[in-house]
Design brief:
The protein has five helices and 14 strands. With 227 residues, the chain is α+β, with helices and mostly antiparallel strands.
Length: 227
């Protein structure tokens, strides 16, 4: 899917989403509330909204310095620097299926959202077995749990350097394997315009962010969908 493949009709967003793992919808909404309302309509076609880290069904997020971030978030580790590829809600037993991001303000200078389909990383059969078999510790406060990077049957990739901790050498090898492949693989960088809405299959497409400046004004509305 190319950057020019923008879908203006909400009825047409599902085709590109199922084909490429993500879809770009062009909204004419101007205010945060209107953009969020349009995102809710799109999300309701896909499943049920789930609360984010702050307990909200819809929220506006922005780049923040490390000292102001949640202690177990990627922002706490990377701050305004580039955020590595990750799966949204990796710290939960079942990550949300879809992630919707809507541009309230692209910021100046603008920071891009980077997308990468992990199924195109060329994992060999034995590498997939490693990712599906080796346990890692998922940090989520007092409810931390053990899991694997690849869900049984390959349903989704649980990857987030901010909350996953390898337990042994095989675990470190598995984490490094994903990082190395993701770093070298071709990806798509979306440069935001006000009203853009990205719909991402969170089980298939990893996402990250290019570096951002303090006070850039970049604000994205975010909705998480379970399905």
């Amino acid at each position: 899917m190319a950057a020019s493949d923008i879908v203006s009709d909400p009825e047409q967003v599902l085709g590109p989403l199922f084909e490429s793992g993500w879809s770009l919808h062009s909204s004419e909404a101007e205010t945060p509330d209107k953009i969020l309302q349009e995102m809710v309509k799109l999300g309701d076609r896909l499943g049920t909204r789930v609360a984010g880290r702050a307990g909200q069904l819809g929220e506006v997020v922005q780049p923040i310095v490390a000292d102001e971030a949640h202690p177990r978030s990627l922002s706490a580790r990377y701050g305004l620097g580039a955020l590595p590829f990750h799966t949204e809600l990796s710290h939960r037993p079942r990550p949300c299926r879809y992630l919707l991001l809507g541009c309230v303000d692209p910021g100046s200078p603008a920071a891009a959202t980077i997308l990468l389909d992990w199924r195109r990383l060329g994992f060999a059969r034995e590498e997939l077995a490693l990712l599906e078999e080796v346990p890692v510790l998922v940090h989520t406060g007092r409810r931390s749990f053990y899991s694997t990077i690849l869900a049984p049957g390959g349903a989704f990739l649980r990857y987030d350097p901010g909350c996953l901790e390898p337990l042994d050498e095989r675990g470190r090898k598995a984490m490094q394997l994903v990082e190395n492949r993701a770093t070298r693989a071709p990806s798509y960088a979306h440069h935001w315009r006000r009203g853009d809405v990205l719909i991402i299959d969170n089980w298939r497409v990893l996402h990250g962010r290019s570096p951002s400046d303090h006070g850039s004004g970049r604000r994205l509305a975010r909705i998480l969908i379970d399905a």
